[in-house]
Amino acid sequence: MENKEIKGIIHSIESFGSVDGPGVRYIVFLQGCRMRCRYCHNPDTWALNDKNSYEETPAETLKKAMRFKAYWKETGGITVSGGEALLQIDYVTELFRLAKEQGVHTTLDTSGNPFTREEPFFSKFNELLKYTDLFLLDIKHIDPVKHKDLTQWDNSNILDMAKYLSDNGKKMWIRNVLVPGYTDGEEDLQKLSDFISSLKTIDRVEVLPYHTLGVFKWKELGIDYTLEGVSPPDGELIKKANDILKTSEYKGYLNRQ
């Protein structure tokens, strides 16, 4: 039965997403994020409320999404991203609960920043686990000091979330943005690789090359962009990161059906 009191604050949707989870996805981007990643390409999602955002219930979202179900076939489904989707955990949980009733595959794209084992969040998170098939977890940096320099936040709870998901048998894709001069250090990449290897439920590891496509948004919002002059990584640097993180050893969701 639908809980009509729950509403999500939506930034935008993508009807035919192909990179945020397996298959063709209906992607819901939510407003709100506490992290301030220096390379963020969507700073317009930081504020929980934005003049261009809108509210809708989980049932309304699902109704819109189901119009595209024919395109999902066996592997597609719904992905909720952000912003940071866990800031609207009640909405995500209800949306995924309704989606699972319809047999829809559910994926959550998150940086893990809101995760805590304290209440009331922890109980809500455990409820969310019941209805989430796959987690896309962005690990910004394995080093806590460098992570804070990049995002203004510590990463200890994020790494704890990864361990908790692993211990509870939840499939994960680990993602890492490769920023020359910031996240490309061999020692740091090796530490990240070792951490990933300690997890039991990793389905895929992705190196996401840094890009500057969202810089114009920073300028429009009047925010100083502190990575001015940093260029996207070249092919050699991307290959090195993929080799250290052993991305080819993780066969991925589509190959395990």
From TrEMBL:
Q: Where is the Radical SAM core domain?
A: 19-254
SUPFAM superfamilies in the record, alphabetically? Answer: Radical SAM enzymes
Question: What does the record give as EC number?
Answer: 1.97.1.4
* NADP keyword on record: no
**InterPro entries per record:** Aldolase_TIM, Organic_radical-activating, Organic_radical_activase, PFL1_activating, Radical_activat_CS, rSAM, rSAM_sf
What is the uppermost EC class here? oxidoreductase
Q: What is its main location?
A: cytoplasm
- Please state where this protein is localized: Cytoplasm
Q: Which Pfam families does this one have? A: Radical_SAM
**Keywords for the protein's UniProt record, in alphabetical order:** 4Fe-4S, Cytoplasm, Iron, Iron-sulfur, Metal-binding, Oxidoreductase, Pyruvate, S-adenosyl-L-methionine
Q: Which GO terms describe its molecular function?
A: [formate-C-acetyltransferase]-activating enzyme activity
Reactions accelerated catalytically: glycyl-[formate C-acetyltransferase] + reduced [flavodoxin] + S-adenosyl-L-methionine = glycin-2-yl radical-[formate C-acetyltransferase] + semiquinone [flavodoxin] + 5'-deoxyadenosine + L-methionine + H(+)
Cofactor note from UniProt?
Binds 1 [4Fe-4S] cluster. The cluster is coordinated with 3 cysteines and an exchangeable S-adenosyl-L-methionine.
The family classification in the record reads: Belongs to the organic radical-activating enzymes family.
By what name is this protein known? Pyruvate formate-lyase-activating enzyme
Species, as recorded: Lachnospira intestinalis
In the UniProt record, the gene name given for this protein reads pflA
